[in-house]
Amino acid sequence: MENTNARVEKSQLKSENPELKVIQNNDSALVKKKTSRSVLLGAAFLMATSSIGPGFLTQTTVFTQQLAASFAFVILISLILDVFAQMNVWRIICVSGLRGQEVANKVLPGLGVVLAILIVIGGLAFNIGNVAGAGLGLNAMMGLDPITGAIISAIVAIFIFVVKEAGKAMDKFAQFAGVVMILLMLYVAFKTSPPVGEAIINTVKPEQISWFAIVTLVGGTVGGYITFAGGHRLLDAGVKGIESLPEVTKSSVTGIVATGIMRVALFLAVLGVVTQGLAIDAANPPASVFQLAAGNIGYRIFGVIMWAAAITSVVGAAYTSVSFIRSFHPKIEKYHKWIIIAFIIVSTGTFALVGKPVNILILVGALNALILPIALGTLLVAAHKKSIVGAYKHPLWLTIPGVFVVIIMGILGVKTLIEQLPLLFK
User: How many CB atoms lie within 10 A of CB 42?
Assistant: First the structure.
């Protein structure tokens, strides 16, 4: 009886005290705002850390060797293209409330299935490389055998999806790993004392331009599954609708900025080594740069960065690839966490038993170059269909650069595929 009276009194207190209601509503809004901010940052860093994999480290090092300070211009142009690609994709996914494959199926029945197949095959093949990179990272960091290191890394990645709040765990892990990588990279860049003034001049007035380098960087940063990593994460967290566009735009740009800081820091570190006339080991260019910059400690730092870059790419590739088949059957949706775990196990098992299948990776690399123009082109068409986006009007200042990215990446993607296909049958 006393408990009943207490509940009645509590209820009356709430109804008679409007100030208490306001305080409770404000507290609820504050919690929601914090959750939203965490999700937005998580999505941004999921995209950023997915793009910062073993290939990212090697590409940046090799191109800086070739182009020296002129690589600053390549970074600038690729980042501009990245921003427009991501802003288009994230906004359209957010407004439609649909995943990439669902949007594609509404534009052209069956196109979503084709896109999903390309994404899953590409994600699985490249995840073998990511797992290998994680193994090499632990080898450099702690001296572990690369296969043992790969298995340990896979267990860490699997644990993220086993915990009850897998989405939150993934967000926090991506943010932590991203910040660690950026801080360590900035430290190594500082140690090499690069010619910053020369790099700034070449950003706007390069001595040489490599369009191949630009396309490679764009494909590696927003190509394949990476295009959808952040957008799908926001959708799964319930962030959608026209009212969410300002936050979604901010999140997409944050992801590109994080990637850009990492790219610039690594570029400056390599540039400092190159301008000193030090020879970079062609067998493992990024590891060589870190060792030349800071000795044995530098090599250990490389191990930490390589592991963080690879393990976050393993998580991002598995999560995003599986998100492309979740809508195909209710059971896939129900058991998607276990399918993600199976995805990681298959990738790790392939590396441990077979190694990296070079020929398959070559073909998938070429196919991956085509995913961005197909995906972005499809979403741009969807952006102007009322049956998909409702009353939303996609801005012209996003549509025109988006179409430009589709055309350039489409032409060069086809060219790459034609060049690489004969290598598969050698």
Answer: 24
Q: pLDDT tens across 298-344, in order? A: 889 888 888 988 888 888 888 888 888 888 888 888 888 899 999 99
Alpha carbon 10 to chain centroid, angstroms: 49
- Comparing CA positions, the residue from 259, 273, 264 lying closest to residue 74 is 264
Gap between the terminal Cα atoms of the chain: 85
Question: Is this prediction's pTM over 0.85?
Answer: no
Structure token pair of residue 191: 């140690």
Q: Residue 111's closest CA among 382, 345, 297, 308? A: 382
What is the spatial distance between Cα 424 and Cα 360, in angstroms, rounded to a whole number? 7
Q: How many angstroms separate the CA atoms of 8 and 247, rounded?
A: 41
- Residue 298 near residue 188, CB atoms below 8 Å: yes
Closest CA to 141 of 347, 260, 311: 311
For residue 312, how many C-alpha atoms fall within 13 Å in the half-sphere facing its CB? 35
Backbone torsion region of residue 239, taken as left when φ is above 0, otherwise alpha when ψ lies between -120 and 50, otherwise beta: beta
What's the rounded Cα separation, in Å, for the pair 183 and 50?
18
Handedness of CA 73, 79, 84, 85 (dihedral sign): positive
Q: Centre a 10 Å sphere on the Cβ of residue 355 and count the other Cβ atoms it contains.
A: 11
The Cα 247–Cα 43 span in angstroms is 11
Per-residue pLDDT of 123-174, as tens digits, reads 888 888 888 888 888 988 888 888 899 999 999 999 888 877 777 777 788 8
- What the block records as the tokens of 32 is 């929601």
Per-position DSSP letters for 199-228, written without gaps between them: HHHHHHS-S---HHHHHHHHHHHHSTTHHH
What's at 209, amino acid-wise?
I
- Angle formed by the axes of helices 166-191 and 226-236, to 10°? 140
Domains of the chain: 62-424 (1.20.1740.10)
Give yes or no for a contact between 360 and 53, defined as CB atoms under 8 angstroms apart: no
